[in-house]
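DEPOSITED CHAIN:
***
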Amino acid sequence: MSSRRPFAAASFVLISALALAGCASAESAPAAEEESSETSTVTYSWERNTAGEDEDPAYETETVEVPKDPQKIVAFEMATVDTIGALGGEVAGAPLDFVPAYLQDSLAEDAFNSGTLFEADLIAIEAQQPDLIVIGGRSSALYDDLSQIAPTIDLGISGSYLETLERNVTFLGEVLGAEDKAAEALADLEVGIDEAKEATAAAGNGLAVIVSGGELSAMAPTGAEAGSSNVRGGLIYDVFGVEPVVQDVASATHGEPISFEFLLEHDPDTLWIVDRDAATGEGEAGAAAQVLDNDIVKQTTASENDAIVYLDPVAWYIVYGGIETTRLLIDDVMQITE
């Protein structure tokens, strides 16, 4: 692609207000607040679900004093690995088997393996005595164990993608002493997303599809749901302004699974494809293209107009957050202009 293109949302003028707003409610996003110009910590609060696996959600406000300029950070959340590296920091520990190639430079040279996206190697982490541990999404349930080792915070998605990105980049910029770099990155991303939205507006309606195991699943706008997987599925619509070919995707598909005939029936101008198997390592790159290489798909407007866009599967399905990843999302969307 051409030069890096950065990000959207009129709310960016409120960067400081959002990120330094104090404690969050159960429906609101986490917030960070500097207690004074001389303090060596930043107060971070969020609403944590304390319910068990089979219980109804029960939220409690969790508040943690986060040390400024932490020398040893463990991050289970790939978007955090992304943003820390983009702001000039480095991550001392992470689930190394899950860090994508484009984020390897965010790791310290002697980075250690902290476990997986779902499970922590508590012995290894405790031996390293980190200054800060960051969880989110898949790893949120690790809080109780990890908080016994070091200050632990949850930077997973809460609210919209753009709100979370803005909040987390601003907060980590403050923690790392990189406030100016964080503000510049957000401003650049805003410009890039605006550019991408102009491109999608000119491209007509669309449908985002996950391909996995030879099956198709339609992705839908987030709507009232703000969970991590909902936000992921709605990225192409909610962030980049693609008009869904059917307004209520979930209802039209009776859930999510769809057939090739569904594609032909609704006939989107553009198909946006995420290869889940490639993202999770369960399949080879290009498998989604093989699945869609059939006579039914070839009859669609998207195929006839060469408007089937294959999105970076790791960025859109695994990471979908952070500065570098958002740049990748923008570049992916801008393929529609080529």
Observations:
- The radius of gyration is 20 Å.
- DSSP finds 15 helices and 14 strands in the chain.
